[in-house]
Design a protein that fits this description.
mainly beta, three-stranded antiparallel sheet, globular
Length: 104
């Protein structure tokens, strides 16, 4: 994902919010109150997880920034997301290359 980051002012301080373009014009979205803007460009992929509840699916990609702070991106409203490829174990993909963690 090409992460685009913006700072948002919240009542409790600054939060980094970020987006990346997803399939069909949808957006991956995420935020992390601990990550500094300069750290977002040096994240490394940790895992992808497909989550379902009440007929709604979302796919979350988890990263670590250079300070080992967790960063996650979520693609919401992915209808009945299904893992593709052999890198998945159930609904979790921990391949080091995020390109292996594809879904439909």
């Amino acid at each position: 994902h090409a992460l685009k980051d913006t700072y948002k002012k919240t009542p409790t301080g600054e939060v980094v919010a970020y987006t990346a373009s997803g399939p069909d014009g949808r957006q991956w979205t995420g935020q992390n109150p601990m990550t500094e803007q300069k750290d977002l460009h040096q994240v490394h992929f940790e895992k992808a997880v497909i989550q379902s509840s009440q007929g709604q699916s979302s796919v979350a990609c988890h990263y670590l920034d250079q300070n080992h702070e967790p960063v996650s991106m979520t693609l919401k409203n992915q209808v009945n997301a299904r893992p593709l490829g052999s890198a998945w174990s159930g609904n979790e993909c921990t391949a080091t290359n995020p390109a292996l963690c594809t879904f439909e």
